Amino acid sequence: MTATVLILGARSDIARACAHRYAQEGYDVQLAARDAATLDADAQDLRLRHRVAVSTHEFDVLDTAGFAAFLDSLPVLPDTAICAVGVMGDQVASQTDPAAAARVMRTNFEGPALILEQLAARFETRGHGAVIGISSVAGDRGRASNYVYGAAKAGFTAYLSGLRNRLSRSQVQVITVKPGFVATRMTEGMDLNPRLTATPQAVAHAIWRAQRKQRDIVYVKPVWRLVMTVIRTLPEVVFKRTRL
Q1: CATH class assigned to 4-239
Q2: Which end of the chain, N or C, is more open, meaning fewer C-beta atoms within 10 Å of its C-beta?
Q3: CA dist., res. 142 & res. 144, Å (int)
Q4: Does pTM top 0.85 for this prediction?
């Protein structure tokens, strides 16, 4: 029987790369995002390139009341679910506009955690599955430049850790992915250090490899593990003097 991957937030560059990586491995693909009709070109490209079945689905991560109906509407319960939903937001706007801050927090933490909880429950009942959440190194320690986004990602990372712990005796795998900087449309125009920056394709490959090798936490660029270890261990009195 053909395995299926569900990709939430399917319009992002990382999501597209994941869709192609899994399709390359023979997975059927379910693409989910707002304005699902805009996914038609991507779906057709996947079908032509990889000869797999592809479906598109309307999904709004902020519509938490509609999650059960969304999952019920899928052609089949997927074997793997990848949550690539996220929004960087603007730190200054988040500091001054509660609605902007709420959007960042809900999009990066509340919505992803709640949809993955429902998927994990269904996977557990079935007896197998993989839940993959794309978090961020920004959640490893709050920094002045992006602490609202970082706080949301910290919550998502903690959620995935707890879910993994709860399901550790089941056949449901839970993976936390921390890409670091990625060269995407979201980071276009930013001055990124090439040594710290991954491509969407590298992120997708790291996710596929982590699932195959039963990894729990993945830093796509291993150097980020060292960088964030240093940042996490700085004493607060020193950390307050930094401009990160």
Answers
A1: alpha beta
A2: N
A3: 7
A4: yes
